[in-house]
Amino acid sequence: MFKYKLEKYIPIEKVEDFYILEDTNCKKYLLYTKGNINYCLDIKENGYIPKSGLMFAEIIEKNIKDKNVLDLGTGQLGILAIHSRMYGANNVDAVDIDDECIIWLNKIVTDNCIEKVNVLKSDFFDNLDCKKKYDVILSNPPQMPMISGKMHDSGGVDGRKYINLILKKADNF
Ligand SMILES: C[S@@+](CC[C@H](N)C(=O)[O-])C[C@H]1O[C@@H](n2cnc3c(N)ncnc32)[C@H](O)[C@@H]1O
Q: Labelling 141: which of 45, 50, 76, 150 has CA 20 to 30 A away?
C-alpha cells in the first residue's frame, strides 16, 4: 500500500495523523501514517482535499473492526470508507452522487488494490438494496448553511437538509 517515499515530498498541511503532501510537479497526495497503518492516496488535479473528514477519522478507528459499513457522500478520496477498511471494517459501501467522485475513487481503489470497498453511485440511500443492513452508517454530508452552491458543501438554509434526511432514512438500513 505504502509506495511513496516521504522524503521526496513537501508536507504542506497536517491534520491529525494525515499529511497533505506535494511533489516537485505540484501534484498532491493525502498520506496517513500511524503505527503500522500507512496509506497514501492520489489527490486529483484541482480536486477536493478532505478536511472535516480527516477529523472524523479518529472516531472510526476505535469502532469499526469487523463491521459492515456504509459511507454516504464518500467524496473523491473515499477517505472515511478507506479509513474504515484500513482499521478492519469487514465490507464498505462507498456512495456518492457525483460522477467525478465515483470515477476517481474507483481509480484509487483499483490502483491501491483495496478490496471490499464497493464504490456506488446513488442519491444517498436511493439506489441501495433496501434489504441490505449495515452495522455502521457514516456520513460527512454537505452541511454549510447555504440554499444553493456546490454539491459538496451546500446543506440548505440551516445546513441540516441532508443531515435530517440521512437520520430519517438510516433506520431502514
Ligand atoms: C462534505 S463532502 C464529504 C466528502 C468525504 N466524505 C469527506 O469526509 O471528506 C460531501 C460529499 O457528499 C456528496 N453528496 C452530495 N449530495 C449527495 C447526494 N444527494 N447523495 C450522495 N452523495 C452526495 C458530495 O458529492 C460530496 O462528495
A: 45
